Amino acid sequence: MEEQLRFVDQITSTAIDLSFRFGPKLLVAVLVLIAGVVAGRWAARGAERALARFELERPVVALIRRVAYVVVFGLFVIMALQNLGVELLPLIAGLGIAGAGIALAMQGVLGNAVAGLTIIFSRPFRVGDYISIANEEGEVLEIQLFSTTLGHVDRSRVVIPNRKIAGEILHNYGRIRQLAIDVMVTNDTDIATALAVAVEATRGNARVLKEPAPFAAVVKLEAGGVVLGARAWTSVSDYAPAGGEVRQAILGAFRQRGISAPVPQREIRMVGTDAYIGQRRDAA
User: Which comes out higher in pLDDT, residue 227 or 89?
Assistant: First the structure.
């Protein structure tokens, strides 16, 4: 029993001694970490306010906020560890070795991150633009560090890894798209009148933009008729419905003006028919 009491007294005295030796340092370290959290948030908000005058995308602002918070909080963590007497050089060396292993294991993720930074800072496109890239096209809905999200006309979404975008040929339509509508009329049609009617019908659609102004021109000369092309611009969201509406308007205007499309014709030649009939007559 005495040995147990002696052991408890020894543990108690050791705990009291450690609390007097390291308690203040631990308390100071906790206070330093709390101050680091507050200072990190203050630095993040300050960085966001400083970037408000620049026209940066939301992912860029969010990334800089995170970097500012991590840098400031990391400095306070270093101060807290130094206050506790932790040797930082072996710790930094160990973190470097662990970081190298993680980098090798996450090459694809890091490649997406580097490509995302390239996209964010070079800004080849912005949220709201209509782009074509990597055999996909759609409206840019979101640009993140690792991926870019496109929206299709059918309301589906395509998530493309950023490493598939950086370095590829990119077609950026911007925030408007061009309608290309081709119609064929007969060779004896008054082309000037047909072009004017097509432009008038196109301009009358509410979804068609006034600038750039719509126009029409002769696109191609065919054996069966003349191909006329009407060109107009709409916003990305109006592109699909405007196409059908403009085609219907042009068709109705052509019918009112008596402008008709050529009737498809097919010529069939029968080779060797006369010789075959002569052979049958001789046999009879």
Answer: 227
